[in-house]
């Protein structure tokens, strides 16, 4: 025997609560526990989404909002990003399928909300910009590493007694300045902006300062060496 209470809940013989809800038009139906919010026979709805076609199984008395929740798993579009059209008219989430004439194998058109599509395009452009900026920063890092190796090689040559022209250090310093300017000119946002700042403050600028210092020291060493050779004669 079933017992009812004032909250629209009926207890069956197994002491299990059965919840009911009132549908548009005064129809009282059992509330489903799966979130679709309707019981009764299942129907298949043909949903057209651009070049894609889906056959979705839902309760005949489900709402368009319920249909959107199922389509979210199929299409990757959140319910709020979807617009559903039946017989050329957009339907609201709380409208019931059976109340507007949706039957088994009826056709529904799914469109992506224009505002959502615009946001996704903007996000895609932003991500592409970040990716390009990261690549540009990485290229600068490679060039700076090469210049750093040349500065170290020149320093080693000077300390080993080899003659090195001052202009070689000047050229390397100028090339480092060029890379520094390239780094500053990179338009970056988010992660790329942080990476650019790190490369600038922790890599390129210190390397540039180091190159200037080494160039000055080696130039002085070369001058002392030439002066000493001149005194011999």
Automatic annotation (TrEMBL):
Query: Molecular function terms in GO for this entry?
Result: protein-folding chaperone binding
Q: Which residues form the Ubiquitin-like domain?
A: 43-111
Statement: the UniProt record of this protein carries the keyword Chaperone: yes
Give me the segments passing through the membrane: none
Matching InterPro entries, A to Z? BAG_chaperone_regulator, BAG_dom_sf, BAG_domain, Ubiquitin-like_dom, Ubiquitin-like_domsf
Domain BAG as annotated: residue spans: 136-213
Q: Which GO terms describe its cellular component?
A: cytoplasm
User: What keywords does the record list, in alphabetical order?
Assistant: Chaperone
Pfam family example for this protein?
BAG
Q: Reply yes or no: does the keyword Chaperone apply.
A: yes
Q: Which SMART domains match?
A: UBQ
What is the protein name given in its UniProt record? BAG family molecular chaperone regulator 4 isoform X2
Q: What gene name is listed for this protein? A: LOC104597317
């Amino acid at each position: 025997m079933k017992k009812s209470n004032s909250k629209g809940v009926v207890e069956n013989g197994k002491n299990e609560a059965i919840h009911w809800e009132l549908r548009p038009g005064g129809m009282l139906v059992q509330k489903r526990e799966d979130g679709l919010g309707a019981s009764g026979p299942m129907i298949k709805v043909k949903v057209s989404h651009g070049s894609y076609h889906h056959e979705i199984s839902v309760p005949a008395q489900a709402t368009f909002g319920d249909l959107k929740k199922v389509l979210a798993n199929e299409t990757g579009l959140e319910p709020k990003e979807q617009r559903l059209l039946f017989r050329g008219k957009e339907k609201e989430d709380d409208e019931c399928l059976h109340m507007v004439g949706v039957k088994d194998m009826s056709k529904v058109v799914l469109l992506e909300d224009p505002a959502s599509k615009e946001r996704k395009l903007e996000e895609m452009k932003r991500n592409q910009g970040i990716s390009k900026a990261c690549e540009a920063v990485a290229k600068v890092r490679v060039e700076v590493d090469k210049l750093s190796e040349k500065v170290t090689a020149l320093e080693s040559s000077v300390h080993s007694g080899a003659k090195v022209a001052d202009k070689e250090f000047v050229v390397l310093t100028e090339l480092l300045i060029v890379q520094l300017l390239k780094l500053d000119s990179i338009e970056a946002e988010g992660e790329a902006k942080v990476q650019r700042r790190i490369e600038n403050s922790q890599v390129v600028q210190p390397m540039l300062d180091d190159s200037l210092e080494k160039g000055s020291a080696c130039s002085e060493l070369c001058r002392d060496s030439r002066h000493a050779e001149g005194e011999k004669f």
